[in-house]
From TrEMBL:
Residue sites binding [2Fe-2S] cluster per the record: 85, 90, 126, 130
Protein name in UniProt: NADH dehydrogenase subunit E
Keywords: 2Fe-2S, Iron, Iron-sulfur, Metal-binding
Domain of life of the source: Bacteria
Membership in a protein family: Belongs to the complex I 24 kDa subunit family.
Organism the protein comes from: Sorangium cellulosum So0157-2
Taxonomic lineage from the root: Bacteria, Pseudomonadati, Myxococcota, Polyangia, Polyangiales
PANTHER family: NADH DEHYDROGENASE [UBIQUINONE] FLAVOPROTEIN 2, MITOCHONDRIAL (PTHR10371:SF3), NADH DEHYDROGENASE UBIQUINONE FLAVOPROTEIN 2, MITOCHONDRIAL (PTHR10371)
Cofactor (UniProt): [2Fe-2S] cluster
Length: 160
């Protein structure tokens, strides 16, 4: 792999659209990082350097943005990301059991990726679905009112 990052032609077009939407390049940092992550799956050092160069920002600034937000993957992740909410509503309604069940089923702990690269398991402080606790987010989809049986069905679909 080359040390130089480049966007695909389609994403380069999207990059130009992003720049046109923002009054200055610093304001475009988060959407540009999302765009790069959508291509790479994570925000690597070479992505950080590329974004900084393209936006005319110090690399330290871009790195600060990328490390502040949990939305950005700081290392390679699985094909699917499973986030188990652990905030009060979820915790009181069984989030710990859901998390431990996921860990046992996947053979990993929160923060790890399965050996086959299919699933990365994470915890989240709040996924804003307190009324349907416990819940988890799989990629961009919410799964609410979880039972261990529902968790099994979700994990079965992900690991096939």
């Amino acid at each position: 792999m080359t040390d130089k990052f480049a966007l695909s032609p389609d994403r380069q077009t999207e990059f130009e659209k992003i720049l046109a939407r923002y009054p200055n390049r610093q304001a475009a940092c988060i959407p540009v990082l999302h765009l790069c992550q959508s291509q790479e799956g994570w925000v690597s050092e070479r992505v950080l350097r590329w974004v900084a160069e393209q936006l005319g920002l110090p690399t330290a600034h871009v790195q600060g943005v990328a490390t502040f937000y949990t939305l950005f993957n700081k290392q390679p992740v699985g094909k699917h990301q499973v986030w188990v909410c652990r905030t009060l509503s979820c915790a009181l309604n069984g989030a710990d059991a859901v998390l431990h069940h996921c860990e046992k089923r996947l053979g990993i702990h929160a923060g790890e990726t399965t050996q086959d690269g299919k699933v990365t398991l994470r915890t989240a402080e709040c996924l804003a679905s307190c009324g349907t606790a416990p819940m988890m987010q799989v990629d961009r989809d919410y799964h609410e009112g979880l039972t261990l049986e529902k968790v099994d069905a979700i994990l079965d679909r992900l690991t096939r």
